[in-house]
Amino acid sequence: xxxxxxxxxxxxxxxxxxxxxxxxxxxxxxxxxxxxxxxxxxxxxxxxxxxxxxxxxxxxxxxxxxxxxxxxxxxxxxxxxxxxxxxxxxxxxxxxxxxxxxxxxxxxxxxxxxxxxxxxxxxxxxxxxxxxxxxxxxxxxxxxxxxxxxxxxxxxxxxxxxxxxxxxxxxxxxxxxxxxxxxxxxxxxxxxxxxxxxxxxxxxxxxxxxxxxxxxxxxxxxxxxxxxxxxxxxxxx
Length: 237
Fold this sequence. Notes:
Blueprint: H1 2-22, H2 27-48, H3 54-68, H4 75-95, H5 104-126, H6 134-162, E1 166-168, H7 179-190, E2 198-200, H8 203-236
Antiparallel strand pairs: 1-2
């Protein structure tokens, strides 16, 4: 019986080790890209048409934060991401339990911290050396999409705190399902498209929209310059 238990523990440790090793490779950028494309472009459609609920939406983001635990070899960062993930999971479980008090705002604030750390880990992986590959280019796109999701989170926090954030043809309910509206407006702001059917309704939302627009303009320029310079270094070597 003890041998069987030790064998199972060995298999679990091996699986976790393999999972961690994968998220430290360039190939992980491509897998994360698929997850982010689903989160940014497909998930909102499923939400609007009522095919999924808040539990599924929560699971998507929790999985993203979970992968962050395995995106660094540094013990401090591993511990930090593990604590943040555990706290996020705990607050989500409280929301779905019979507990009287709702920590929705704190849950969202913690989600922003989680996303900031996750973006930092991805940037660190992206520039961990001067190697330029197709996976690294995909990784740069991942960071762009992650910043759009971060913008959506902050828009939601503004709404929870002030009761107003986006005006126009939009009906916010103060629930997870509002993500479809927030991510759309965040992406529109970052790409500076500005279709006009939605607009920032108060000063914090206006400043966030301007910040996202600046990021959307400056980020590709900085990343392209960095990738090109890295490519030139490799050629010179």
